[in-house]
Amino acid sequence: DITDATELNNLPYFHKTTVKCENSYYLYYGEVINEIPNGHGTAFKIKIDPLKYTKIYTGIWRDGVLVNECCEKILYSYPWLRSSKNEEQNIYIYKVYTGEMLNYKKHGYGVLNETHIKCVYKGMWQDDKKHGYFISTHVKCTTEENYLNDKLEGFCKTIYDKVNVLTGYFHNGVLLHDKECTMTYANGDIYKWFQNKDMITATEIIYAN
Asked: Does the reported pTM lie above 0.70?
């Protein structure tokens, strides 16, 4: 699992050069032909202001361009201060995308794994945005949802603790109150639920087992 240049330098069969991605130059380690990335390789970029930011592309390259299936890894390091000892503490955020890309953007089917919060998003992407059917897995729930241009659209279902089911309809990312939204519990009880303009959730029982 490559995360920085130190690890890349330990791979003796890899060749080091530079490659242009997203109008910026990246340091590339991998297979080349005539000093141009061709074959399997990894390119990474580090930005330190205002926070440490590392973006890594791993995949198959052709004539200096990353082609379709690949892995994009984004790492953030946020500096925080410990109030008690006044020592700097780094908070790391890891995002790993594996799937189809176009012009270095998520495009087509892919999986985004946000390991720091244990969330996985599987579905269709368009121009780096969620666009289509997704299955999202979180710590305590699994969600089936539909997106249009990165906003929830249509029917969505969330299963909590593998037994409790929450359903609702969305348009342009907003819950539709004129559509029936329900919460079904493991014991068979069914509640109707809604959110008002202040995002306060209320429920009304419609069936008790």
From this structure: yes
